[in-house]
Amino acid sequence: MQRDTKDIDTLGIPYDLGSVMHYGSTAFSADQTSKTLVTSPDMLQLIQTCFFENHRLDSAIRNRNQKRFRVNPRENKLDRINKLQNKS
Question: Region Disordered: start and end of each range (predicted)?
């Protein structure tokens, strides 16, 4: 069941890629190597792979990385995708 992003209320809290409830990017693939969960923008995938799958980072470090890669947690996912596509 797919939901429209306007139907989801995060209460202003950014998604926590370091959460224990976050699955790895290949968690549900049949061959355990294909990515089934991909973050947007692409830089977050790199951050997740390098940092969050292996280490629990405190909120201050996560927030600093969000700012470094200019991720606005309140910006909806479709807006982020559109920005990435327009940069190409």
Answer: 68-88
Other Cβ atoms less than 10 A from the Cβ of 39: the count is 21
Task: Give the predicted TM-score (pTM) of the model.
Answer: 0.29
Q: What is the pLDDT of residues 24-76, one digit of tens each?
A: 777 788 888 888 876 666 656 566 555 544 455 566 677 777 777 766 666 66
55 token code pair = 């280490």
Q: What is d(CA 2, CA 78) in angstroms, rounded to the nearest whole number?
A: 14
**pLDDT score, position 53:** 46
Do the Cβ atoms of 57 and 18 come closer than 8 Å?
yes
Asked whether the beta carbons of 84 and 41 are under 8 A apart, the reply is yes
Measure the CA–CA gap between 52 and 69, rounded to whole angstroms: 15
